[in-house]
Write a structure and sequence with these properties.
heterodimer; A: alpha/beta; 5-stranded antiparallel β-sheet; 33 helices; 43% helix; B: mainly alpha; 3 domains; 64% helix
Amino acid sequence: MSKNLLQLIAPEIAGEPEDKVASRMRSAITLARLLSATASRPRVDSTGFDLVRAGRELDKCVRADTLQVLQQMFFLHLEDRSGLGPWQRPKAQVTQLWKGIVSLEERKISLALPSLPEPGESREDVALRILAAALCLGLSECASNNWRGHLAFTKQDPLQAESYYRKALEGEGVTFDERATAIAGVGGCLLDRGVVFLARDWMDRHLDLAAACPKLARLAGLTSLAAGDRSMAEQLLRPEPSQQLPSVFNSLGDRVPSVRSVLGGSFVWKPSEPAVAATPRRISRSDYGASVLVIMCAPGTTEECLPLRWDLAASVGQPTDAWLDRQVAAPWTAGEPEQAIVAGAKMHVELVEEGKVGVLSRSCLSTTAKAVALVPVTQPESEALLGWVRLEFEHWLVPDPSRLEALGRAARCAFAGVSCDRAKPRERTAPYGQLFSELMEGVPLGRRRWWGFVDGPCGPEQAATGGEALRDWEGNPGGRGSLNKASRMGKLLQGPMAYEGGIQSMHGDSKGGLLTPVLGAGGPGHPQGWLLVESTRATDLDRGLADDLAKRCRLAGPRFGLAQFNEWHQERYGHRVHLATTAHGELPEGLGQALLESNKAPKTTSPVFQQLARLGGRACGEPVLIVASAGAGKTVAGRFILFCRGLERVVEISLRGLGSADLGTAIRAARDGGVILKDGEHLDPDGHGALDQLLRQPDAGRFVVTARQPILGQAPWEGLADRLMRNRIKLPDMGQRRASILPCFRLLLAKAARLERRIAPELTSEAEGLLWRGDWKGGLRSLSDFAHQIVIFHDGDTLDGVGLARLALEREISLPHRLSSKHLDPISLWSAIESTRKKCGAIHRGRAAALMGWDPDTLTAKLKALGMGAG
Amino acid sequence: MNLQPNHHNSFESYFSGPLWSLGLSQLGRRELGAVHRRELAGLLTDAARCSLGLNSSSSAYGSLLRPVLGGWRGRALGVLDMLKRDDQYFDGQELVEQRLGGQNPSPELMILAALDLWEAPWTYLILGQTLLARGDGLRAKEVYGELLRQNESGQLSDGAEFPWRVREGLGAAWECLGSDVLAYGCMRAAAEHRGSGTGPLVSAFFLGLDLGRAREAAGFAKALDQRLSPHSRRLAACAKGLRARVDRRQANRTEGTWTPPAGSVDLFRTLLDGEGAGAVLTRALVQNDGGQVGS
């Protein structure tokens, strides 16, 4: 009977298996019930489904669900090292969430979903892809800014994160949760930066929302506690068993016992994560949330204990003589912590509760001081004490010990090149003075004066000044407010800034000024220096001038970066190096076209230099692979990358025949400095495991691997290809960059002369031409050897072409008298033209022809044949 | 707690969808039913407030209240007549009958029944106040907290006054729970809200003084001087309420009298010697203090 009925109702499924039939019948019955329920409503003639609307609703639901999954996945990929991040880690497993996404894809739901993480892909990269997918799904503007803020916070860039959170608060239609997240984000960023009082004021301003949001109330309590307001913190902090304490508060409970009761015994003490190393070439009190930062020389370093540098908050003013005298006498005064530092080179931190007297009674801040930290500065190898850094705080939030140790390491640079008269600031005129003068060449001065400042360890250092107006600027100084502000803003200032006279200016009589940052080689980032132009007329500083200066500074950036690198290189390796920073475009397929275009094109940063600088970008935490033939300058390029990444010490290790144990020992010797792993093609298979581990660590950004040939496809490098593939660079051979031969040779000649204690001979133009035409297959090494031999075997102040040819012949070095004009090598011709261009960018035919070994007519004929005409 | 308004009870829902096909008589009955529900909700709310003894002069947070509607008994009888004539039954009908019969049902129950009949944001405010009056600060905090969350998200609003009244209620709840800092934060935000009443201003002034935030308290005193005349009845009521409030706070503490903390002693003395609304309120505190600080 039932089968007959089934044949009657649904003849097409009558023969199918029972479970399938039952399932389909259930669906049919549900549909029938829905239809009958709708149809039985009074006075409704017909019923039906609006399929388009239903589809739209379904799409909306799927999008909302997917967005929620993406949010959880995004939060799972974030890492909160400080414990101050405003997001909460979801409890779901990351694999489960990815499975959910994959199942959506399998159901062929047409949404832009992120693909599974690639092997070795960093958490931040995956999070970024998830953010992109969420934006496609209609993530709100406010939420997207919050997510971006979280990502910047994870990358330990609280300044950037704060700007995103503030942007999130500006939007319209912001929900309560989003607003609370953004407020907590700003508060967390401020606290992370150590700006405790700003953080407390910020949270205080949003107490009404904190009253409805426990997360905000807790952060408000923590900021109050850090600022030393116990009674307020007591009312706001309500400890719960599962709560984790931000790492910056770890030691507070130990150092101030009365605070423990406020935090409650149920807080989980989270072990502190290693903090980001302080940027070595720059020390500022605001990076540590301190009001006073003083670097003191230890008694053995100079004849007496001297304050080397100080950085004080504006509210403190200048240090008094009495206070300075006390600091100088501290190592010889019983009971002073400085004595312990001199004796044992151990860090000392003291926090004092209100009403109690300790070391703080002798602080610069006197009554407002709540904490003092003394950080020893030692020599890298011998651990001998150079001096110490004294930090004074108006709050209890002393940075982690790991961060203070990093400060101790960073402060070493303040002692570099400092002798007994160290108390005076370093003179930074050369080579920056020349660079600034060249930068200002052609700018009409009239009533204007300019100053050039270089970024130094403790802020801006004056390098040059020029102009006819505002002469007595040292006798009549302004407040330098604009320069101090620019220095504090750091990388936030990327373009020109106009300011008014008076407290903002360098000269007391100036009516206004323009400050332009000189950005480094890698583009946007921390400025290498600042150019200030002031005038006696306010209208003298217009938009045109600002644009012109910004353009000039942008072009000069790489040279400033190179100058800083050379300063560093000279200090460590005893000589300077040459890296080509500018070029008139690249050499494409057709030489004629390239020449034509380059004549019109302005000088830009050399592509290879730009790549090196970008790889050295400080945010990049991945290892770099440099591939080039022997003597192409791999080691110098590696040093440059590590210098850009802010690593003070660099150790070079050859991988030739190193086993696993040897490699581990060698790396340990490098401690936390940069490491250049040379001869990558000779890596022993035994050492592969150890190297694999090293390059997968979070601090892998301090490793540079160099090799003479492409190694990634070969065993044992196959497994590491994913780590090195993204950050690799191939340097051109010496023969492909003849423009570098002469500048390099001059530097190598000077280095050899210094080593041999002889005078380097001057090269005539014929000798230079000969050198330029050499093939130098051994690269820089063969150039260096030849330079040494010239210094040793040549007597005389000058070396002409004949003498050079004779020396080369004796050493079997081939230096041709002319390059072939029949079988033209386009790269050589391009290099000859590049090396001899005039300042305006035009081709200097005579000099270019001399380099090629041709007469000028041959060059003109060749250029005509290439389509350059008479120009 | 879900405080989403129930849109099935709103007028708009009667003019959309298949209900258009209803006859005019049916439409009239439904509309009338909605009016009755709202009327009954209002009557229940008023009854709850009356049974708690809340009015603007005796309550610590009087500004939360709207004036009590007059003629409660007559209106309640009218609604009941209508109900009988239409032979309809409403939730909360028994509560009205009990009240008319001289009994006093639980105020909280009456507010909840009112909310069931007609879900209005204002009724939630009164629910919070009822909880506060019964000393249940924890639940009041939850109600006001949720109201603030929804109001900030743009989901729940009832006029320009609503945001600051929610904050004032939340502040009162936190004060009841013993967190003066959060209470002050809410009162300050309410007082700084455009068009706010004098209640939050008085609370913010007192709490600022009590927390030692002299500069901010001085600002609130100045604002009070501009808004209230020293001889106004409103100010006298505020002073009386403030005195009662300090008495309540002191009853929970061991010390005998209220004294300003070190941070605001100077302001306190300056205000005592001055004129204006701030001075009147400060003198009210001195009366409580027995004149110790003032002398």
